[in-house]
Amino acid sequence: MPDAAAREATRRRDDARELLSGFRAGEPAEEGHRQKMLSLLLGPDDPFARDSVRDGHFTASAFVVHDGHLLLIWHRKLLRWLQPGGHVDPEDEDLQAAATRELREETGVTGARCVRLLDVDVHPIPANPKRGEPAHRHHDVRFLFEASSHEAVAGSDAGEVKWVRFADVDAELTDASVVRAVAKLPR
């Protein structure tokens, strides 16, 4: 009989597979990302472990909205405005729990309601020689959250936080994958 850790790893893979199988991508490129994620779940490496760099690993993020605005953080390592998010920790029950934890750690926002899976994206991450990390890919699962106020404070990887009107989220402010996801937000 498999040990508890093996059962937990299988459960996490099954949960992610179910989540991604039920998601309908908005465009062909996003469908390609979804298919890559489903393939990653079939691989030999732990797809949730930060040190799984051959095919990349899952990350989870939060697109937090309130009153027509999106919450963004200034990412200190990547030097750009992005949605809160990051790696899946061993104690995270699932990808949604990882997104919720990252939201709290990076912005102080608690009590935001997770509405649904909003977007999926696979993107390259540059090498980080200081940490001994080679270039790799993040398979980012992006959840839509609704906040009850504009209260937020920068923490952990976030140099700053700011609320941006949906109409002001463009390629000059952030990357194209964030712009694509924002286009799906209810207006």
From TrEMBL:
This is Putative hydrolase. GO terms for molecular function: hydrolase activity. Residues 55-186 form the Nudix hydrolase domain. Pfam families: NUDIX. Keywords: Hydrolase.
